[in-house]
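Quick one, probably user error.
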């Protein structure tokens, strides 16, 4: 053999440990109870639970994939598994939504072109990715709310590949300026529930904050309808700023925000993320 007999084969490195910067690794240890030394056991414990749900097709069970769910649930094996199961169950129950989940799908393509979602180039001071939605841009004659949700899920799938974002998470900012009552009437409770199930209950991402800006009274009314479906943790992270951009800027520095949100960056170019994707 080519290898001298005295050097045994090296064990494989733990998954994606190299993928985190030293600061983020520290954060993962402190905030998520991540332990590089037991990563393999943690992942295997979750994988071993898969046999308890024969009713669900687990289409991916590789280390890197399971690790996302552990990070999203602070390394609680049971909660991570529950999220993994819900991830595939949601996809199983909503097959049509995931049929052609690509940037080239006509509905998704139109939604992306109108900035659903927009993704800012700069991270916030906690390393989080900022998604911006300008609600009034929704052209209901060209694509549905489900297309917007699909475009958001496709975008998150692409971004969550980055281990740094698995640890640091996302911020969602929705600007409701000029969003009409007619547009709002298309947001039925069942549609909104579908979105909450897809984002809150079935996706391995940490959402650090959801910011509503310039919301009209009818958006408040819709919020009261969906509030029962939100976890306490989610409710605590929803901020209703109205037209007070100063309260938004206390949480997200204006240096990285586009001018529409009172920031110092130029107006957001809707096509940026569509092109990147």
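Nope, works fine. Designed sequence:
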């Amino acid at each position: 053999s080519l290898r001298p007999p005295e050097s045994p084969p090296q064990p494989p490195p733990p998954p994606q440990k190299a993928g985190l910067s030293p600061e983020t690794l520290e954060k993962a240890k402190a905030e998520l109870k991540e332990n590089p030394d037991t990563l393999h056991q943690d992942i295997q414990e979750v994988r071993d639970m898969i046999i308890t749900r024969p009713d669900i097709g687990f289409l991916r069970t590789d280390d890197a994939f399971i690790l996302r769910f552990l990070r999203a649930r602070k390394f609680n094996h049971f909660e991570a598994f529950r999220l993994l199961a819900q991830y595939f169950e949601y996809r199983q129950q909503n097959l049509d939504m995931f049929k052609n989940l690509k940037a080239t799908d006509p509905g998704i393509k139109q939604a992306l072109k109108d900035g659903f979602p927009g993704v800012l180039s700069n991270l916030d001071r906690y390393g989080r990715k900022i998604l911006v939605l300008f609600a009034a841009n929704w052209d209901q004659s060209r694509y549905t709310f489900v297309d917007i949700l699909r475009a958001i899920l496709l975008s998150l799938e692409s971004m969550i590949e980055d281990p740094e974002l698995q640890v640091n998470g996302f911020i969602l900012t929705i600007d409701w300026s000029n969003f009409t009552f007619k547009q709002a009437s298309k947001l039925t409770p069942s549609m909104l529930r579908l979105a909450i199930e897809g984002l809150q209950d079935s996706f391995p991402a940490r959402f650090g904050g959801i910011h509503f800006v310039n919301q009209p009274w009818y958006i408040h009314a819709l919020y009261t309808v969906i509030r029962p479906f939100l976890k306490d943790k989610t409710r605590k992270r929803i901020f209703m700023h109205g037209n007070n951009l100063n309260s938004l800027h206390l949480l997200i520095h204006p240096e990285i925000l586009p001018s529409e949100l009172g920031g110092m960056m130029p107006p957001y170019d809707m096509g940026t993320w569509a092109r990147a994707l």
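The first strand starts at residue 118 and ends at 119.
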